[in-house]
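[Meeting: bench + compute handoff]

Bench side (C.D.) handed over the final construct sequence. Compute side (W.E.) agreed to return the predicted structure before the next meeting so the bench team could plan truncations. Sequence as handed over:
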Amino acid sequence: MFELLKTDPSSRARLGRLTTTRGVIETPVFMPVGTQASVKALDGRELKEMGTQILLGNTYHLNIRPGREIIEQAGGLHKFMNWSGPILTDSGGFQVFSLGKIRKVKGHGVEFRSHLDGSLIFLGPKESMEIQRWLGSDIAMVFDECPPHTASKEDVLKAVKRTIRWAAECRVQPRAPGQFVFGIVQGTHHPDLRRKCAEELVAMDFDGYAIGGVSVGEPEPEMMKAVEISEPHLPANKARYAMGLGTPAQMVELVARGVDMFDCVLPTRIARNGTAFTRKGTFAVKGGAVKADFGPIEKGCTCFACQHHTRAYIRHLMNVNEILGLRLVSIHNSHFYLEVMREIRAHLAAGTFAEYRREFIANYVPSENVRRARAVAAAAAAPGAAS
């Protein structure tokens, strides 16, 4: 159940609370991505200590490895990965549609080849919901079609119609006890198609709604437009989730546009390349400029990495390929994302979000390496890619 606690008078921002059988989620919220039942380089204790409320898992990958038999023997995904809090699982739809030439779309799903061994697999609304049921996730996503942002309007319309039809099939499938199901709005940058998709999904009365087909390589203004044209057609009493987004500054702006939930691979992905997020943007930890810098990654940060280690030390670890280096940057980046969400919630509660938004955006300078990382972010969700 989602409760709308407060709205911001200066924007579309909302303070809310989503109650699941495994815990209460205060929104706006960021969900670390645990594609294969693990957030890259981080363990459950660290995630809890930094305030993680909910994790994301991947239906496609977990179905292939380790598969149903192992997870069911373990007692479900939560017990398998030793995570007692809520988990959201995506439907696997994006992974399937990223397969391109090795997939065949049919009326009730998609036939494709496994990226591991080439075996023939079929995934559709029924199969996706069945997998998410035995995974035992707290929030399951409907199986949808995510067209590329460059697709013609005719092809986008076909994808929207298929998404609506498949959502109706997902709606009637059996669920795990207490499991919520969210619909996904598609339509790329076309207002009429976004509206059509949203209105038909809302009529099905899902537990929440996601805005899909964003962060798939399109320019940032187009991404913002997709959210802006979708949000007005979603009910105020249901959670809203922007899938696969975004940078810290993008999340602040998207909260202002009415989004409640986010996930993104960037915190740990760019950490493995030696890039750290800060309030002023990002910087290269591996760079020579911090060779003798004995301050923390970010002054005032309360994460473990900043409290116990210096930029110089972490740079040394990264440059000699010590695993601890990428772990420390991953800890800092993930903590930073969660901290931004905590600050947003606090300012929404206090009625000072407008000032916070202005200050954050004014100080945050996007870097070219993160823009490049986001431009290829779709590859992060593709079969075989790392999160």
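W.E. noted at the follow-up: Residues 144 and 240 are 16 Å apart (CA to CA). C.D. will use this when planning the next construct.
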